[in-house]
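Appendix C reproduces, verbatim, an entry submitted by the partner laboratory led by Prof. M.T., so that reviewers can inspect both the input and the predicted structure.
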Amino acid sequence: MVALAAGVFGAVVSYTLGLGQLTQPGPGLWPFAISIVIIVLSATLAFTGRGLQDTERFSRSSLLTVVGLVTLVGLASLLPVIGFEIPSLLLMFVWLRWLGKESWRSSIVISVGAVAAFYVLFVLLLSIPLPRLI
């Protein structure tokens, strides 16, 4: 039910951003589409999920999902303030090191490499106007 509520909230908020059209999408079009998918999947799971037998039980490790969500909210709040480089680097590092249990070295190398690749792809090649530090 939490996912269903989050999907409805996301659909309402993204609709207020403006959907535009498929040929000229507005800023809320893709978040709206994803929210609709979340609503449909959550409603399906709400009706059929009780009979499932191969599910995972909630445990202490289930809290990692909450940590992932909190770090995504942190990324979204820091993005317009200091650009995408530092928040993206921190997000990837936290996910790799503490959520993925990777080594310090691989977490640092992969985080820096991925953010550099995102910078080249989105900023230099695709010219997407992301808020950025550099």
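Residues 96 and 117 are 17 Å apart (CA to CA). Additional entries are available on request from the coordinating office.
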